[in-house]
Design goal:
The complex is a heterodimer of chains A (475) and B (228). Chain A is α+β, with helices and mostly antiparallel strands. Chain A is built from 13 helices and 13 strands. Chain A has helices spanning 13-16, 22-49, 60-79, 84-89, 91-94, 167-174, 177-214, 231-281, 284-314, 327-344, 363-380, 423-428, 435-445, and strands at residues 55-57, 98-103, 109-111, 133-136, 140-150, 153-162, 323-326, 348-353, 358-361, 384-391, 394-401, 449-454, 460-467. In chain A, a hairpin with a 3-residue loop joins strand 4 and strand 5 (140-150). Chain B is an alpha/beta fold. The radius of gyration of chain B is 17 Å and the shape is globular. The chains are: A alpha+beta (475), B alpha/beta (228). The A-B interface holds A 262, 265-266, 268-277, 280, 297-298, 301, 305, 308-309, 312, 319, 321, 329-330, 333, 337, 363-364, 367 and B 9, 11-12, 15-16, 18-19, 22, 53, 79-81, 83-84, 87, 100-105, 189-190, 219.
Chain lengths: 475, 228
């Protein structure tokens, strides 16, 4: 019910304490791995492809080749008196190479063969007068300029390699560095997130199911994909099998409890009837024994009723019959009865404050909770029992006695069924050892809490807190 | 005075018969729902003690079918702590309930409270008294109520409550007083029985005329409204 509210995890709580969450660890490792892979790929591709976006000085054998070509063209122009145009358009040359000549003096440009429209060779003009370069553009690589002197004048020679790769890859390679990095980061973040969520989702589902189960919702199961073959899938299915088993066992136990108590009630009713009949005919001497039998039968009756109420409350199986009601009316009623009881024991009941608030509650349950606490207080008090009533967002009802109090180690156990701190005395006074257990469970069923503490001056304080806001979800 | 007890606990039936016979009642018993219902429909009993858990058909079903033709007073025997059973029984038209395991004195008090009314009419049947107010007439001699000459089918307890309220109008009658006068017992803490009976009366009146005839006085009780 609503007591599970504190346990409900915040959706982004892993952001607050990342180290406590497997999700974060897995996420980080995935992320780092992917980032590392991307970075390595990035550097490797740089090294292997001489990824010059614009140009680098031409060196080594490539430069030698270009020089050799330039000299060969000059030689054939001078020796064989052939025009430069003839030389560069000669099939033997054009078969393998695309040459581009840029006149030093005029704007004249010579090309060894026609190229496709999108190849813009005039880009190369920027390198006029520079030492030989390797120039890298989207569609081609150019080697040059290499100055040649022919009878027609001075030219700058470029050897062009049209890129065989698709323009897409080249364009990717030419993207600005920051863009590549952010793409890598976003991609790896998304992937890591998906990976880790895939791992964590079943764990979370298991966790939720476990919380619900521990809160008494026996129908809770982990939502695990039945196709999932990994350890988490196996764990989830095992968990669900365990929950099935648990539900079966508990419902069998509950049925047994209900059956036994029903069976106990029938002979108890008969016992009471028979006692009544005996009382009608019995002699004066045996009347006192019959009265004793009747008293014990009533005690049995009360114990059975209390056991049933605790087990129903603990199992959340008792539907609350909620009614909007002023709490003061209920409290007055209970205090009136208690006042009478206290007077019989020569003890005083002091009441401070009020709880004139309307709340939705099951009046029978709240009344029986308060009755049980008060009866307990009256039993252990020496002279006075003080009740203090307060309300703001929450209703506080504090009931204190001036008795011996309870050892600190036993405070928590007080609300357990059948726990008694001083055995012999209680049984004589007619307690069943279930009063505080009933009270606590009744208060919890209303979304409230029951806290026990020792007063400084001695004596036990029981504080009941109840939320005021309506709780529509609870039946 | 003839009583019918419908309960599958034969031992309890025997003991109860003996006990109530000693008190001057004659008791007939039935151990399952169907048999009990048939007996209840065939004979006129002063009172029926009806258990909830019964073989063949359960106590609620017996009560529901019985109420379609008869207004014999019914006391339900419910299990202690089963608030729902109690409320449901009263809604279906039970006159009162007693939680098992009960005390013999408690049972006798309730049986007497209900049967006393019948003795009471027998003794005063001569004076043909009636009260009429706000369109509703209560006839003390025949123990019947009517609205504008249409008879109102009230159970014994419902009739008693209505008559009590009308007799004392315009005074407010507290729930405690209603409980002691009509059910013959002190009203337990947070007992909603009287509210259930009054709600049943209101529903039955509303079938015939509009407007609430019985007003709830919060914290005090109920009052019958005389004028419009």
């Amino acid at each position: 019910m609503s007591s599970s509210k504190e346990n409900k995890p915040h959706r982004f709580s892993w952001l607050r304490h990342p180290r406590h969450y497997l999700f974060f660890k897995v996420f980080t490792w995935f992320w780092l791995t992917i980032i590392g892979t991307f970075t390595a790929l990035f550097f490797l591709s740089n090294i292997s492809l001489i990824n010059a976006i614009s140009h680098d000085p031409l060196q080594g054998p490539m430069q030698k080749n270009l020089e050799y070509l330039a000299r060969a063209i000059e030689r054939s122009a001078h020796k064989h008196k052939r025009s430069i145009n003839d030389i560069i358009t000669h099939p033997r040359l054009t078969k393998r190479k695309l040459l581009y000549l840029n006149s030093q003096n005029s704007d004249e440009v010579l090309i060894s063969k026609d190229v496709e429209n999108n190849i813009d060779l005039s880009l190369l003009n920027f390198s006029k007068g520079m030492p030989p370069q390797v120039i890298f553009t989207e569609y081609y690589q150019a080697f040059g300029p290499m100055r040649i002197r022919v009878p027609e004048g001075e030219f700058e020679l470029y050897e062009i390699d049209i890129n065989q790769q698709r323009p897409l890859f080249i364009r990717l390679r030419l993207l600005p560095v920051w863009l590549k990095i952010s793409i890598a980061i976003i991609a790896s973040l998304t992937l890591s997130f998906l990976f880790s969520r895939n791992l964590i989702a079943p764990i979370n589902s298991l966790k939720q199911a476990a919380i619900k189960l521990s809160n008494g919702d026996l129908s809770a199961r982990a939502a695990i994909n039945s196709q999932r073959k990994d350890e988490l899938g196996v764990l989830g299915r095992d968990f669900n099998r365990m929950a099935d088993q648990l539900e079966q066992l508990l419902s069998a136990q509950k049925r047994l409890l209900a059956d036994i108590s029903h069976e106990l009630r029938s002979p108890l009713t008969r016992l009471k009837m028979a006692t009544g009949l005996a009382q009608m005919q019995a002699s004066e001497a045996s009347q006192s024994y019959l009265l004793r039998i009747e008293k014990e039968a009533n005690q049995l009756d009360k114990m059975i009723a209390d056991v049933l109420q605790v087990s129903r409350l603990e199992a959340n199986s008792q539907p609350l019959s909620l009614q909007a009601q002023s709490l003061q009316v209920i409290v007055d009623h209970v205090i009136n009865d208690a006042q009478f009881e206290a007077k019989q024991h020569n003890k005083t009941l002091l009441v401070h404050g009020n709880v004139e608030v309307n709340i939705e509650c099951d009046e029978m349950l709240i009344a029986s909770a308060l009755e049980n606490i008060l009866r307990n207080a009256i039993k252990y008090a020496q002279h006075t029992i003080s009740i203090s009533l307060k309300h703001s967002d929450t209703i506080y009802i504090q009931i204190c006695d001036d008795g011996p109090g309870v050892p600190k180690a036993q405070l928590d156990k007080l609300c357990e069924p059948f726990f008694r701190q001083s055995d012999a005395r209680d049984r004589l006074s007619g307690g069943t050892g279930l009063g505080l257990a009933i009270a606590k469970n009744a208060v919890i069923a209303h979304g409230g809490n029951l806290a026990l503490s020792n007063k400084y001056a001695g004596g036990l304080c029981v504080e009941v807190s109840l939320p005021i806001q309506k709780r529509e979800h609870v039946l | 005075m003839k009583l019918l007890m419908i309960d599958d606990d034969t031992g309890l039936c025997e003991l109860l018969s003996e006990y109530l016979s000693a008190q001057g009642f004659s008791i007939q018993t039935a151990h399952d729902g169907q048999q009990g219902l048939e007996l209840a429909l065939q004979n006129d009993y002063a009172l029926i003690l009806l258990d909830v858990m019964l073989p063949s058909i359960d106590g609620f079903e017996v009560l529901k079918q019985l109420r379609q033709s008869k207004l014999t007073p019914v006391i339900m025997l419910t299990a202690k702590g089963e608030d729902f059973d109690r409320i449901f029984g009263l809604e279906l038209g039970a006159d009162d309930y007693i939680a098992k395991p009960f005390n013999h004195r408690e049972l006798l008090a309730r049986v007497k409270a209900i049967t006393r009314r019948i003795e009471h009419i027998n003794s005063v049947s001569n004076n043909n008294k009636k009260i009429s107010s706000n369109g509703i007439t209560v006839n003390f001699a025949t123990r019947e109520a009517s609205i504008n000459n249409n008879s109102l089918t009230l159970t014994g307890t419902e009739y008693e409550i209505l008559a009590l309220l009308m007799k004392h109008a315009p005074n407010v009658i507290s729930k405690e007083q209603i409980s002691e006068d009509v059910l013959g017992r002190r009203l337990a803490s947070f007992d909603r029985s009287i509210d259930m009976h009054v709600s049943n009366i209101r529903k039955k009146i509303a079938e015939h005329i509009d407007g609430d005839k019985i007003k709830t006085m919060r914290g005090t009780g109920y009052v019958f409204i005389q004028g419009e």
